[in-house]
Each structure stands twice: as C-alpha cells, then as structure tokens.
Design brief:
alpha/beta, seven-stranded mixed β-sheet, three-stranded antiparallel β-sheet, about 45% helix, globular
C-alpha cells in the first residue's frame, strides 16, 4: 500500500466531512467514490447516508482496493462496499447515484472531457457531482524557501509533461458550470503544518515516486534532484519551519 495515499486521505478527511455537511449529504443516499484509493471519503459518506444508504468505492489499482477493503472492515462500515474497476473502460449502471465523488483524478490524468462525461453518466437527475482537486499556489514553507519552490516546480512540470495539471483545482468550478450543472458552488481549504507533520514531506514523496519521469524528461539531472531533495528534507525537518499545503478546491453542482 502506498503510505502517501492513506496519509493524504487522513489529512483531508475533515474537509470532506465539512463539504458533505454543506451540500448536505442526506440519509438514504446511494453514493460512489470514484478513485477511492486506500480510504478516500468512504467514512464521512458512510456516516451521512446511514443504514438506509449505500456507498461504493471504486479504484483501478488492486493494491489500493485491498487496502480499502481492510479499512472498511476495520472501521465497521457496513453500508460500504469496494469494487476494482476502471472508470474509463468498465461498465457502470447509468444514472443511479445521488452523489458521485472524484478527488485527485483530474490533476494526474488530464482527460477532463472524458472523465467528466463518465462521472455525469453515473449521476441520476437531481443528483450532485462533487470534484476535489489541488491548486498549488499556496504550497510552500513558512517562511518561503527557494529550494522548496524549485522542487515544487519540478513536480508540477512533470505533471504537465504527462498530460496532467497539478493546478486542476483552478478550473473545476468553471468546468462544472459549463457542463450544465445547476447551483454550482465551491469551497477551499489549506492546512498549516508544523512540528514535523509527515505531510510536510509530500513534495519529497512525490519527487521520489516520479523520479524516473523527472530524470527522463531532463527536468533536472539525478544528482541535482538528489541534492534538491536533501535540501528540502533538511528544511522541513527544522522545528521552526512550517508548511502551507496546496489549496484543496472543492466544487459541486446538481444534475
């Protein structure tokens, strides 16, 4: 299991809960979390739909599905089931869900029109589509440090070269409005991290995961990347350094 995915879901779970309360998600709803990873937003959805509702978590990655199944079992989420499936290639029943949720799907994939069409096809008339994506504008140390900014720039460049866009959160409000959804709304959250919080190391984890792509694209050489990562590691390890996360932008609208 990728520990980044579990940590990321834990960091943003409170904001998922706040979002679902603002919508609000109602008892008895049938919901789907597309790309749920190892835990996604399964728990806050489960709590809000109650015994009369159902939540389906889907992901294409087998290891993530196994971890999600364990998470559901460990937390007694009896109204949640997990399924390995690919939103782009597998068949799903159309227009059956009261809520369709996607988080961190548009940023890495960049297949906006196709992904949005697939998500809308799952949603029943009167249902709500929820999209959560990052905006890296705020992402830096406090005080800012040029090495952190440089590593962040390398990561964002790598996303773009692979067809994605780390700053997808900047466009999702307009995307949903132009798709014809009604009463489109938006909120955003930024976390301030201190005292060596493990999520402060997210750019290092990204860079290590994307190392081969970064070097192959000649964004930086391997030795330069190692030196940059070592500098950032030293910065975020200092007790007087804080980190502001990227902004998590949440947008939703009604079909």
């Amino acid at each position: 299991m990728n520990p980044i995915l579990r940590l990321q879901a834990q960091v943003w779970e409170e904001d998922a809960a706040a979002l679902f309360d603002q919508i609000p998600v109602k008892p008895g709803w049938e919901c789907i979390d597309v790309g749920c990873g190892v835990m996604g937003v399964l728990r806050p959805l489960s709590e809000r739909v109650g015994e009369g509702g159902r939540v389906l978590g889907v992901d294409a990655d087998a290891a993530s599905i196994k971890a999600a199944e364990q998470f559901v079992s460990d937390n007694g989420l009896t109204n949640v089931r997990i399924k390995q499936a690919d939103i782009f290639s597998d068949d799903f029943p159309g227009e059956v869900y009261d809520l369709v949720h996607l988080r961190f799907m548009f940023a890495p994939l960049g297949r906006d029109d196709e992904l949005l069409a697939r998500a809308l096809a799952l949603l029943r008339p009167g249902g709500v589509l929820v999209v959560e994506e990052p905006d890296g504008s705020s992402w830096n140390t406090t005080p800012p440090h040029p090495a952190f900014e440089e590593l962040k720039s390398v990561i964002l460049d790598s996303f773009r070269r692979d067809g994605g866009d780390f700053n997808a959160g900047q466009r999702i409000y307009r995307m949903l409005a132009r798709a014809g959804l009604q009463n489109v709304a938006m909120r955003a959250a930024v976390r301030a991290l201190t005292n060596g919080h493990p999520y402060m190391r997210l750019p290092l984890q990204f860079a290590e995961t994307m190392r081969e792509r970064i070097v192959a694209a000649n964004l930086v050489g391997e030795e330069e990347l190692d030196a940059l990562m070592a500098t950032v590691d030293n910065i975020v390890s200092k007790p007087d350094t804080g980190v502001l996360t990227f902004a998590l932008v949440q947008a939703w609208g009604w079909k």
